[in-house]
Amino acid sequence: MIHIILIPLVAAVFLAVNMGGSGIAAAFSSSYGANLIRKDLIPGLFGAFVLLGAVFSGMEVTLTIGNDIINETYLNIQVTTILLLSIGLSMLLANILKVPQSTSQSTVFAILGIGAYLNDINTKKLFLEIIPTWFYLPVFSFLITFIVGKFIYKPIRDQGFIDFGTIKDHPVIKYAVILGSCYVAYAIGANNVANASGPILSLFANIMNIDNDGNSILLIVMATLLIAPWFGIGGSIFSSRVLESTGKEIISFGPLGALVISVITGSLLIYASVNGGIPAALAQLNIGSIIGLGVYKVGFKNMFTKKTVKRIFVVWIIAPIIAFIIAYLLMYVNEFLF
Q1: Are the CB atoms for 23 and 99 separated by under 8 Å?
Q2: How far apart are alpha carbons 242 and 225 in whole angstroms?
Q3: How does DSSP classify residue 276?
Q4: Phi/psi at 170 (nearest 5 deg)?
Q5: Which residues contact 277 (CB under 8 A, 6 or more apart)?
Q6: Residue 267's CB: how many other CB atoms inside 10 A?
Q7: Which residues contact residue 120 at a Cβ distance below 8 angstroms, ignoring those fewer than 6 apart?
Q8: Which stretch of DSSP H or E encloses residue 37?
Q9: DSSP codes joined into one string, 98-130
Q10: Angstrom distance (rounded) from CA 146 to CA 283
Q11: What's this model's pTM, rounded to 2 decimal places?
């Protein structure tokens, strides 16, 4: 039995590595884009704070992924492996294309692929709670950043009340930006680790015949500790690719812009995590904030004609659909073979 259980665990590790590759851009693209931290230091910081977020704030999302979209009793060894592989392959595609994809969307769509095959989906949770956040939270991220830039930063700068050119180089500001990136990494742990640990939690609960109702704290901690450390490893593998896309190729920004992006992105993600356990679209929150800053600086037209921005939007649409299709087809193959 042990060697069979290793199969979904390996799939979960594969997914965690790819999530780390995508998530590291969302966390540290702001501080890296502002040239405040060396690239080789980022994976270690990223991994440490992801682990902290997963342990202290990740329970609600883990339970949502594990048993609130489809019935957790379906998540046996074969189905759990199918789910995790489907998500991981869609994320691998995004990382190869150097686009930070929403892991949560790929996860939910993969679960939907399985649920569609089984004809059992919790549509209320999906359509009333999860999917709406994918639309309004990135819009909030965009609007808040744009408003801060245009109606707070710009008037203060133009009136000369504060010399932003001087304070942006102050060591306190630089360290604050790096801490802001660590804050986003913590938020990633609170939300995105669950995309791999949630299915593993339900698998453990089924094997041990334990009701996965939130009382099995030990199982939640076990699943989290098995998955979270691999985020840092994935970040180390993929950081050179995805950090350039979001940190350098969309819009250039300084330390203050980087700090605003980190605080807005991390706060919205933590809000989604602890209020209802919603698997939120982290990559879209981050890119929404960066684009909000870009629109403030160069305007709508110049921002949305950038090739990097267009590529990001295309992959955001394609990757979740690929996860759905892979999961559905693998369920069919599993039924045919077994």
Answers
A1: no
A2: 25
A3: S
A4: -70, 140
A5: 59, 60, 61, 62, 63, 64, 68, 194
A6: 16
A7: 70, 71, 74
A8: none
A9: T----HHHHHHHHHHHHHHHHT---HHHIIIII
A10: 18
A11: 0.85
pLDDT, one tens digit per residue, over 230-272 is 998 988 887 665 565 554 544 556 677 778 888 999 999 999 9
Q: How far is CA 64 from CA 45, 89, 164, 299, in A?
A: 27, 22, 43, 39
Residue 327's CB is within 10 A of a number of other CB atoms, namely 29
Q: Which residue do the tokens 């630089």 mark?
A: 174
pLDDT value for 296: 77
Give the tokens for residue 134: 């994918």
DSSP code of 148?
I
Report which of 227, 207, 291 is spatially closest to residue 253, judged by C-alpha positions: 291
In SS3 terms, 55-75 reads as HHHCHHHHHHHHHCCCCHHHC
Cα distances (Å, whole numbers) of residue 153 to 79, 107, 116, 141, 225: 51, 37, 48, 16, 41
Domain that holds residue 194: 2-337
What is the tens place of the pLDDT at every residue in 31-57?
Answer: 776 677 888 888 889 999 999 999 999
* Tally of domains in the chain: 1
